[in-house]
């Protein structure tokens, strides 16, 4: 059985998720697991469900390696988990080539390409950090707005009504620490 897995990082990426599902359908996947969750999160229930669904002789199909893993070690751990079930992993788009971990050459190429992808990501993050530091030095970057402080008036009003900080935090969907900061401001 061919089982597909599609993932996007955010809810706004519906077109990307739909595109992956179309590719997986075209590749003959009989069942497709899909989710919208960051690749850096370790809790990806649909990926786990896809791995749990695998049986001996099955094939797990993904469109690109970054849909499954964020690092070479992570990807190779998934390959190992798939192979431990007697299944193989197929990646549809690896520089125009399809890779199937069922053969040694594809496995070698996958390891090398995953290492290059991880290297590129590390370089991108380094450039991003440098850009943020430069923008901060020039006073153009202040970071993410502290949304909890925007609710300071609501926090004070609820406190005046006699609510405890934990209740205020729950009602306003902010942390308890943010409630205390808002009360101090």
Automatic annotation (TrEMBL):
Pfam families: HTH_7, Resolvase. PROSITE patterns: RECOMBINASES_3 (PS51736). Residues 1-139 form the Resolvase/invertase-type recombinase catalytic domain. GO terms for molecular function: DNA binding; DNA strand exchange activity. It comes from the Bacteria. Belongs to the site-specific recombinase resolvase family. This is Resolvase.
């Amino acid at each position: 059985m061919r089982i597909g897995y599609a993932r996007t990082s955010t809810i706004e990426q519906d077109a990307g998720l739909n595109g992956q599902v179309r590719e997986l359908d075209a590749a003959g996947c009989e069942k497709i697991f899909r989710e919208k969750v960051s690749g850096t999160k370790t809790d990806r229930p649909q990926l786990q469900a896809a791995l749990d669904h695998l049986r001996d002789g099955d094939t797990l199909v993904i469109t690109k390696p970054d849909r499954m893993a964020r690092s070479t070690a992570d990807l190779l751990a998934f390959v190992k988990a798939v192979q431990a079930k007697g299944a193989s992993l197929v990646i549809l788009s690896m520089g125009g080539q399809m890779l199937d971990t069922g053969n040694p050459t594809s496995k070698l190429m996958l390891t090398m390409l995953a290492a290059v992808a991880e290297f590129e990501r590390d370089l991108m993050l380094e450039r991003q950090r440098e850009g943020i530091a430069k923008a901060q030095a020039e006073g153009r970057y202040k970071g993410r707005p502290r949304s909890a402080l925007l609710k300071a008036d609501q926090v004070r009003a609820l406190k005046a009504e006699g609510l405890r900080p934990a209740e205020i935090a729950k009602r306003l969907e902010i942390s308890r620490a943010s409630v205390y900061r808002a009360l101090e401001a």
